[in-house]
Design goal:
- By secondary structure, the chain is mainly alpha-helical.
- It folds into 3 domains: about 45 residues, Ubiquitin-like (UB roll) (Roll), CATH 3.10.20; about 90 residues, Receptor-associated Protein (Up-down Bundle), CATH 1.20.81; about 240 residues, Receptor-associated Protein.
- It is built from 16 helices and 3 strands.
- Strands 2-1-3 form a 3-stranded antiparallel beta sheet.
- Helix 6 runs antiparallel to helix 7 and helix 12 packs antiparallel against helix 13.
- It is extended.
Length: about 400
Amino acid sequence: MPTFEYSAYGAQGQFAQGRIDAASHELASQLLWAQGLTPFQMNSVRVDAIRWWQCDLFSSRRTSLRQLASFTREFATLMSAEIPLDDALRILCDQAISESMKRSAKDLRGHVLNGLALSEAMQNQAKLFSPDYLSMVRAGELGGNISGALDEVAELLERRAEITARIRSALIYPAMLLALAGVAIGVIVGVLVPNVAGIFEGSGRPLPTMLGLAMALNARWPEIALLVAAAGVAAACATWWTWNRPDTRRIVERALLRLPILGPLVLDQETARFARVLGTLLKAGVPLLAASISARGVVRNGHMRYGLDHAIDALREGAALHHALQTEACLPALALRMISVGEEAGKLGTMLLRVAVTFEQKTQRTAERFMTILTPLITMAMACVIGGLVMAVVDAVMSVNELAVR
């Protein structure tokens, strides 16, 4: 269906701007009139107006986590200064640090001027604004404190951006190490080993085992590359099939939680996300059952979502939150104890936010520890592979020297 970009005036003279899908220009005008808007400018948006080199897959037009955090921080500052919502979005549109954020702010402003709440407008951009972002903004709207909710979201995004930046920085050295190791192995297998193997073939002596394996690898690398590509395609198809079957996906995600290092990392991250959204909603005055349903939506692990569904059913039957979570959900014991204390003290919302901070910090420490361990592991693995090849070549050269002496 064609998309039209319009500029219009409302019933009270306010300016409105945005996009609308309609079969024709006339039908788009009729839809705007039905919404109480008087259009004075309307242009068709061509689907092919954005070329392939301008798409959001490329970094120049994508919205990074740090850009979204900066946008949210500026938004919170403008709202705390009691600037009207549409004016704040207009300022953000004018001062956007990227083209994608400018388009986003412009689209948000158009929907807000059309009467949508901020969270509803953000819901139309689900690729940019995550479920926990939307839930916290919705909680701010319910509590009449959008600036505070945006400030919390900005802090959360800044912490995530910091963790992501640290992980990327820590991955630079292992990536360079793997690349150099690949070059070294290619030189040894493709250049050095064939030259040494020729001496053995001329003397009639059999090749050492390691040199024989290297020569076989050199001779059959097209078949090996094809086999690796086929295995990659099969793995991708299996992943897609698993991902689109809820029951199978839940089994895989349950197994993921049991892995030694990655499992606790995922569990802590999901716990922090659930606790932050639930605590923010409760502090905004949202009932526990409704807040739990909304917070459940931000959990990405299917096995944890399945347990939270049963916990929500227990809440409907009148169970306390910590009893329901302890029986049905697989949250960490520390989180359950803190929730129990908060519930008994009548400060559940505050305690949930403390749970979120605790497990966010724990997630950051675990990620840093994992990256610290990963670098020496990769170094030792590459040293063993390259060292084994070098030792095989040296052993072969020594055998050739013995042959020459005899």
